[in-house]
Write the structure tokens for this entry.
Amino acid sequence: MSTKFNKNLRTTKTLLIVTLLFLLYFVSINNIYAESQQKDSPEYLVPIGNVLQIDAELKNIIVSHSVDGSSLKPGDVLMEINGQSFDGFKDFADRLSTVDPTKDVSITLNRNGQTLSTDCKKEILEKVSFNNLLSGFATLTYVDPDSLDFGAVGHPISICNSRKIPIKDGSISSTTDLSIEKSLRGNVGSINAKKLDVIGTFNQNTDFGIRGKMDNFDLSDLPKYKVAELEDVKPGKAQIILSTKDDKPEKFDIEILSVENQDVPRSKSFKIKVTDKDLLKQTGGIVQGMSGTPIIQGDKIIGAVSHALENDPTVGYGIYIKWMF
């Protein structure tokens, strides 16, 4: 009886020690992670609000038009040819040119989020139309005045059903001759513009926007804002900073309707409503191209516009600023 009791006691002690060691490890790892995040996160940012033209070459290629006899469909993202990854369209074309025309070509692709494999004849594959470039408009959210790192868009750049497409080389450019198609209930409008000068480069396309480095942009006259903690964001009045004409970006009034309690990065951190009469007159609410528009509340930058509601484009969502780092 005593021997069995002592054995159970020793087992219990061992379990307690293992549990304590695990807890100490877990706490220390989380502390290290928190400290790392704190060191990597800038304390101040410069909110921008300029409309950008975004241009990029993709690492993968996307089927734009298929042909008879091909198992490929428009929107398919090609990732490998004969078991080998490739870096952009030229690399893909070079690899395809070396394939024996009498043999099938093995293709690995992503279709609607699923990884699939299929075989194609070389002559058929050579007739398929591919898209390896993208271009569009969005808004520059912030620039870190110390590192000149920037963030923009507020959601991943997508083509067709392909989300968060890997970027080989990307650039952002300033714009002029802005024109706005107003949003209406049931139809989200858009911003169009003419490209000017390249002001930055990027190759990171994340769940919460693009990140890169500014090359040619003057921050000297622009104010810095403290980076908010998520708990600092409160329902009530706030502002967005946006260029709707060819002059400097302006502040426009919005209202924070609700704030999500997010412990980990997720989209739609807070719900917003455009209330500024001047902006509503110009845009009708949120339009395509406003993604990434910085949101400030008081003396802090809290996030960026990320989504609009199609059935009511005066209402949309913002992403918390630190999720964009």
